[in-house]
């Protein structure tokens, strides 16, 4: 008897793999905000391995917490900012950012 085939055949297999990659690695989509196109990528908790500072609330995003990464479409990836999901969704309703104190850590 021959072994069972675990992979589906045909062109549908490549479509399934592409959507699986999008879910796993958080491939981005674009959103319009402040008259500009922004690339937005959802980061899963397993992929978040560093500390980040959210520009929406100025609080720390610890490792292991799912969050959002956003940057201007025509900007570089060096301009990426890591946001809490709730902060990104409420970015239009937030007031002006409070400045951090001199001793606050900058991540």
From TrEMBL:
<protein>
    <submittedName>
        <fullName>ATP/GTP-binding protein</fullName>
    </submittedName>
</protein>
<feature type="region of interest" description="Disordered">
    <location>
        <begin position="1"/>
        <end position="27"/>
    </location>
</feature>
